[in-house]
Protein 1
Amino acid sequence: MTNDPNGSQAAAERGITLGEIGHRIVLENEFVRIWEVKLEPGETIDFHLHYHPYIVISLGGGENEVETIFGETRPTNEPLGHTIFMNEMRPVHKLTNKSDVTYLSRLVELKHITWTDEGAPDKPEPAPQPVMPEDAADAFREILIQTADMEWVDKSLDGLSQKMLWRNEETGASIALVRFKKGAGIPNAHAHASNQFMYCLSGRYTYIPTNTVLTPGTFYCNPTGSVHGPTICEEDCVLLEIYDGPHYPVRPPWYDNDEDAR
Ligand SMILES: [Fe+2]
Ligand SMILES: [Fe+2]
């Protein structure tokens, strides 16, 4: 081989088309391109070449093996947190997960430097990667909340607290975890200005006039305007409570502020 320091000619002669350096682009802007690399035990990411300096941060894994196009192999150990920085072009290589756990990492390419592959006469630059349009990222609007990390917020009714998970400020609809302490309850009969749904996660909560008892696994609904209560919590309970609109027509007397009533 005359001048093929990175093995791209060797790859071409063997009919190997170089692949991507990762499985999915997580984020890209003018400065960086961040890939996810995920290999199940025994799995390989195929021969590829890096054109930018890069950092690899392991999110989990173990023994891997790098094999270059020249047949050299090198074991790596990449457990969670393992971090490397590559500041020069290396020969075409592939990576195989040699452990019995999934290997997951983020590979951050630093785009301000682009290396030239001396051995690739007609392909100095890789084909442009599919780039997510700037505004496409806005299409992903998922929200994940770990409710265990939230504090219970006391309301102005004794023994009642909540974790507000979601609220639509325009419609008044909301989803919350509500917790009643044993002996607490809503003191009056009342109705809501929207449909109310409850799913009991723990404890025991009773609507006194109808002896409707919520226990873990029960689902309860008050259609808009349906009169119910008073209520009593017979065992500390947690309910997932959903309203599809405003909670009350007017602030009920058991709350001393408007915030608690919405
Ligand atoms: Fe690589
Ligand atoms: Fe109610």
Protein 2
Amino acid sequence: MHSDAESRGGRSPEETFAILGHETRLAILYELWDAQDPTAPKREALSFAELRKRVGMRDGSQFNYHLTQLVGPFVRQTDDGYELRRTGGQIISTMLAGALTDEVVLDTEPIDDPCPLCGGQVVLDHGTDRSPDLLLVRCTACEGAWKHPELGSGVLRAIPLLLPAGVRERSLAEMYRVQTTWVKYRIMLLIEGVCPRCSGTVTATPLICEDHTVGDGQVCPHCDRIFEILFRRVCDVCQNSFHMPTGRHILVHPTVAAFYHDHDFEVYGHNWHRVEMETIADQTVVSEDPLAIEVTVVIDDDDLNVTLDGAGAVIDVQT
Ligand SMILES: [Zn+2]
Ligand SMILES: [Zn+2]
Ligand SMILES: [Zn+2]
């Protein structure tokens, strides 16, 4: 396994950004994207003449020079002409999403869902200097799910903010719903060992509080959180990181998801803290080496025992 671009026959990041840093080349990518009909059964290639006309460049040799820079890494040349490669499409998607150019700015807004821990007023909070790229779901009445020195008190969730395209044309309520969906699938990918940002491998580390004590509306004084056991997941490639309690991990197993579903428990919505707070009756380390954690779920007098390994994967489910 090689990690440097050269050994994979690729280009350095410097060369790649230099290729892209020209308006004619970006215009070529854009026109190739714009020419695609997503409903057509087959991707249509553009001829040299058609592409040059669309980009609006008279000088054929100049145009050819720019196009040649893109052919290979970003554009595919076929007998029919030119078409976008996946990387070219990714550049266009990133541009259209405003991911590199636009800022998401949201005011602090109260939302209707009460705090799952204390019933208090919850606000969506964003735009503090310390968390410009996070959306904080914050309770105004209790200490929240975890205390972080930079994020302040009452944080129930700190989640990666949608890209600018995800916020445009949506009301706050719609954005919050989409944000939850966006994070749900990212979490699922991480739990299954795939980085949602770069698709690299992910390393999981269990964090277990030995003296866990959660008071009314207060986080544990030993670990500063309400979750007794968390798994820290960090991408080995891009260091994208998440902290997730056991309650998130058990849900990837179909038997567990069906158990919650059969008991009318909505587990993928905004208030997923309820999974931890209302249904997980016990979590016990049943083996130190190799590490195994048994999570007991109880709903309406029915119970389910789920065993996680040291990387947070479900290895056994007993009803
Ligand atoms: Zn609260
Ligand atoms: Zn603790
Ligand atoms: Zn990654």
